[in-house]
Amino acid sequence: KKIVAALAALAISASALVAPASAQDKKYTIALIPGLTTDGFYITMRKGAQAAADALGVNLVFQGAPDFNPVTQVPVLDAVIAKKPDAILIAPTDKVQLVEPLRKASDAGIPVITVDTFIGSGVYQTGAGDADFPLSYIASDNVLGGEIAARALAKAIGDKGKVYVSNVKPGISTTDQREEGFKKEMAANHPGITVLETQFNDNDANKAASQLQAVFARNPDLVGVFGANLFSALGAANGVQQAGQTGTVKVVAFDAPTSIVDNINTGLVDVAIAQHPAEIGYFGVVSAYAHLTGQSVPVAIGTGFTIMDKSNIADPNISKYLYSE
Ligand code: T6T
User: Which atom of ligand 1 is nearest to 173's Cα?
Assistant: First the structure.
């Protein structure tokens, strides 16, 4: 009798160690739709997402458009929805234009989490507004990033003179907020600085470079530029170089492609504000998995920045935040 009871107890405790068959057998597929596929920022985000997917035994699908544009992103989204993944992580390329296409996913029962950029106001799950259905928003604090950029540029130019923002196009939550934070900080704390009209480059670095030269031609006393994303910053920096103004027109760059190292070392770029896209991807997958397995998920997760300049760019604890190619 004793032996039977002991065996029964053993069987119970052994079965308690084994997860229920349904949870164990289910291999979730999570789709990650970037702003565009050929951008170090999203390539790095994908690596973080893959690391989490590997750790959790999730199948990660990465599918995106070759340019940052709702017109090319929406068909990719439709194709992903048709394949019925268990969850969608997406960097919406427009605050408004992605609302209805993403509602289709949500209506089809596919949970949506936005990474990097948001739709609507970016405040989700409030019952207010018509774009609050995503479960979570995982990203940098972009208003703060713009403020940091303004302070860095103000310092580089001795707190006086003309500057402008090189930006992508209105309607993108991230770059709108960076410009907002930049202008807010300049207006509040840097009265000696004049912020000229923003130049929009459609995420085209060549356009950003020509715009820099045109602004400089109109304003030979230009002293600085804030490149509000990777292509805006690289383009503006090239424009400064082509205008022969390296070191005279200061550049503060958002984002940190590997090429920024040379630009910092040669003095073409004063400061680069690196985001942590791998963290965004990692926590995106973890959040989706948490939701799929019955856990609750924070409505917002903020990731940090690493500020790079000549004094620290050689430090491996800093350079590890450079983006992958
Ligand atoms: O700056 C990032 C991203 O945060 C933004 O939303 C779009 O541009 C980048 O991908 C850089 O190119």
Answer: 6
